[in-house]
Structures are given as C-alpha cells and as structure tokens.
Fold this sequence. Notes:
This protein is mostly beta strands.
Amino acid sequence: MNHPRAIFAxxxxxxxxxxxxxxxxxxxxxxxxxxxxxxxxxxxxxxxNKSLDLLKLRDDNLVLAGENSGDxxxxxxxxxxxxxxxxWVDGALQRRKITYGPDQPRIDSWRVGAQWQFLQAxxxxxxxxxxxxxxxxxxxxxVKSTPTALGPLSCTEGAGCIDxxxxxxxxxxxxxxxxxxxxxxxxxxxxxxxGAGQGQVSVGSVTANASxxxxxxxxxxxxxxxxxDNQLFNLAADMFKLNAELQSIxxxxxxxxxxxNLGYSSGPWVWRGGYVLQNIQRTGVDDxxxxxxxxxxxxxxxxxxxxxxxxxxxxVLFTRGxxxxxxxxxEMPFLYNSLTSQRFNQRYGILSVxxxxxxx
Length: 360
C-alpha cells in the first residue's frame, strides 16, 4: 500500500533531479541606461554538460546517475527600453531542456520589470533606484518514461511497475521589489541591492500508468484538486497519512535577497562579477519536510561572472558563468516540494555565450 508515495516520489523526483535556470539578479544596477543607452537586446545560448563542466560546477551525483543526466540546453532573450532618463523597463523569455536519461522536460520562464531611478549620482552619494518585477516558470508536462518500481514490488518482467509518469501544468510566479544603489569608483562600478517578494507554486495534476498491480492489473490514476480519481488510492493516502504531503505540492512562497556586483572596462574588454544571497520560505512544505525528519533548504548562494569584448561601440560578444550552491532553489520554486527537497542540497552551474546590442 505504498503506491501513492511511490508514484509521487518517482514523478516529482524526476522533475527535480536536474533543476534549471532563472533571473540574473546578481547584475542589477541603478542606472542601466549608462550601460545600454536608450535600449538593449541580448541573446544567449545556455549550456551545461560533461564536456563543459571543467570547473566541476555540478554535483557528482547528477553525473553518476547517467552520462547525460543533468545536461542542460537552453536560450535566453532579453530586451530593455529607457522610457525616460529615470525610467527603465525590461523583459526576458527563456526556454530550456533538461536531459535525464531518455527524458527531456522543457521549461519556459518569463520576466518583466520596471525601474525608477529616484536619486541621481552625486559626488558623495550613489545613484539609487526602486525596481519592481514579476517572474515565473512553467512546464506543461514533466515525464518519467522509464519503469519505476511500485512500492515494495519489483519491475521483473514488467510486473509491479509504474510505466509512465507525468507532472502536468506545473508553474510558479513571484512578485518582487528591490532597492538598488550604484557607485562610480573611478574605472570600477559598484552596485548593491536588497529586496523581497511573494509567490505561488501550483501543480495541475500528476498522472501515473502502472502495470501488474496486485488485484487491479493495469491502472491509470490521476491526482488533482486534493484527491485521486481512484478510490483505492484515496483510501491508501488516508491510511498512511499522506494527504498533507500530497497537498503540499501547491504552496505560497516568501523570498528575500541581498547582493552586489562589480563592473570594469578597459579598451574593448568588459568584466562583470556578481553575488547574491537568497532566502525562500514556504507555507506548509517546510513543516512536512521536518515531520519526515529531513532538512528543508532555504538559502542559496549564487556567483555570476562575465567577460565581454566590444565588437563595436554598441555590440558586445560575451561569455558568462553562473554557479549555485543549491541548484536553482530560489529561482525555480515549482521544482521544490516535500518529495524533491533533498535533491536541492546539490550545486549546479551554467555556461552561456551571447551577444548584446545597446542603442545610444
């Protein structure tokens, strides 16, 4: 009677075993017009695999699960526009694919933001801005297509197996506000920021196809709106007190962050580096994890570095690296729940190559 736990553990671990990417908050600055002029467009190709991971940014457990497990492939399109000397708006779209064995879930992300520079830089004071943004992630379906043992049973000769699992319509969204200050220190530009936000995570449903279930044979069941469509699974969830755990796949979030970045230019070369510390709190989920005698993870440290070369005064070709102590814990909330939480005690990183054009 461990069937509900097996279904949800296997399906949601498949979703969370190799998490993926999000907003570049580490590079926030008070006056983006100084860097981009009246507007900008940027495109990056984002990758991570065994050949690229020369600095061992990924945790060994991801690679040991399979040669291509934890591989990441995606693209990011960003654009920004100066509406007035003190008003900047921007947006971003991301599409990526994560490989885990034969499965390659696709995740789409979006972000929109607006920034008001309410303080101009003076000799003894920084430029300062208020930024508000909304961002989110979604996946229509995350599938695990390899056989998975059903509770204490084995997959010998196809009996007692979950043949196909899918997490359907998983998404998150967050509203966020930040204060940003920027200082010009000779050829170096220093920016610091702090902010907070609130969000929500929701999963439409989880569907499992199982074969060789004792007394039932082949079964397809779906969990949505707080219950299974198969009464036997509802009885099992009540018997083993799994309802709180199952319901915790939908939850609210609160986040806070602080960080800084440095920028430096010399001739055609441009260097940037940033750091951000993020904390996320979740209603209901963390208590469920503690009740299982496991540790919930709330803090994530992120480092971002970038080297660019100006092909012209307006066009920059660059390479960028991003390293995280706990994968995308605070940037992809929908991948985190009471069943996947232990996967987020793993580091991860992404390498990008891109081109940026500013309009002066």
